[in-house]
Amino acid sequence: MTAPTPEALSAVTARDGLEKLVRARYRNGALPAALQGNETLALLAAHRSVRAYKPDPLPEGTLETLVLAAQSAATSSNLQTWSVVAVADPARKAVLAEVAGGQKHILQAPLMLVWLADLSRLKSVATARGQSAEGLDYLEMATVAIVDAALAAQNAVIAAESLGLGTVYIGAMRNDPARVAATLNLPSMAFAVFGLCVGYPVEEVVTGVKPRLAPSVVLHRETYGQSAEPADIARYDEAMQDFQGEQGMRRQPWSDQAVARVADGKALSGRDVLMQALNERGFRLR
Amino acid sequence: MTAPTPEALSAVTARDGLEKLVRARYRNGALPAALQGNETLALLAAHRSVRAYKPDPLPEGTLETLVLAAQSAATSSNLQTWSVVAVADPARKAVLAEVAGGQKHILQAPLMLVWLADLSRLKSVATARGQSAEGLDYLEMATVAIVDAALAAQNAVIAAESLGLGTVYIGAMRNDPARVAATLNLPSMAFAVFGLCVGYPVEEVVTGVKPRLAPSVVLHRETYGQSAEPADIARYDEAMQDFQGEQGMRRQPWSDQAVARVADGKALSGRDVLMQALNERGFRLR
What we know:
Two copies of one chain form a homodimer. The first copy, chain A, is of the alpha+beta class. Chain A has three domains: 1-46, no CATH class; 62-205, NADH Oxidase; 211-281, no CATH class. In chain A, 43% of the residues lie in helices and 11% in strands. The first copy, chain A, has a four-stranded antiparallel beta sheet with strand order 1-2-4-3, sandwiched between helices. The longest helix of chain A has 24 residues, at 139-162. At the A-B interface, helix 2, helix 3, helix 4, strand 1 and helix 7 of A face helix 2, helix 3, helix 4, strand 1 and helix 7 of B.
């Protein structure tokens, strides 16, 4: 068997089976043959973010299905400290796209889900009984709510992909939490952790399976041991440049991009004031 | 068709199909028939946390499969700011169980995955080049890392369930971040967001599909509008007590439990000092 060409690598889908997907993800490596035939694993492994959407509307019941999947995820102590705002109105999506620095896919996708870390519900339940909810004022509860929102959203992503839809997370909702809150009429103690575009991918735009760091870099056994070896990072820099070449993107080593992205507060696209923005949204973060 | 008894409700599995799963999750409601036959959706909807494990070891390659699934999740700007420590050593699991207030399932499960928000890798890549990574000192980058870890972990959960395994998240790793860090030899700028037990469920222990708040409570359309109606909360309090009865647990309204859980800093199981603990782990959280 000849090795797949790089082009074939980035274009693999769940139907190509796990072996090829593993090769695309790691540019290397293999998994036990016993896993072939597991549709859910193949779906997970075939994930890519989609940034080109058809205008086609979503079938009736899609939103409810995504929310069912989201609510089926674990939630810390069953507190359910997340909510989601489903935005389909073009004018409202346009405001969110502007917050996100003009990301066109927010305008294209028929649905933008904005996932909230939402402590307002517990606050209102406590207030209705005349009870204190001072525990909500700690960093711990903001962490719980952020994790809850992320677990819920990821289940919605998997559900969407199982329905043939594509998605992309929009972290840039954090560029301007106050404007997002005003646009979505959010109560105090709720903030938009990220958005998620949902829609049918434009077939002509082939988005590849993006390589990741070697599993040995992120997986530690028993104890952490040492951080990434320079050789691992160098190999990944090469793999990412191969991928960028396949995708017609500018080639740049991952480590160059990553280090630039965290060089200083100014590199954070306005998110260097997130602490203050959350304080203003009612999160004390003690 | 007669309505399923409450017992049948909580014991539904992915094989029972989505209609029954929706009923178990919401005690109410229906989804389009078109979704029947989607194995991935049924798997998502059938999720329950498992707290009783058989000692059976995991098949060869399981850990690698879970990590592949985790690495296939989206990660903010491809920064991959998470890592995972796989703990199988009984003595080490015993320490983690102690941190978690003696949760026995940590001892039972053959594998405990500890998911890290990990900014140490980017720090070391920058340092190796003599470059600054001051952007890591902001709340924004800690948020990115927490979200990255959660998305990765949730993919691992879905992968595990697709392999017939059960899981339960262990938020109590945050009870004592310093002790967890010492036990796992974590570098500065890495902290354990949560653990995840992985293993084969004890079949005799039937864990039910836990009801959640009505979808109308967590899903908002276009704008947030108002918070939960007292009637919605009252209905959910009833549903949870029905579930507790089916599971042989003490009946207590959800709203009573939830409000008690966030009453004040003391209710947070030691996590009221999370801000200080993260500062000590090298997260400045500006």
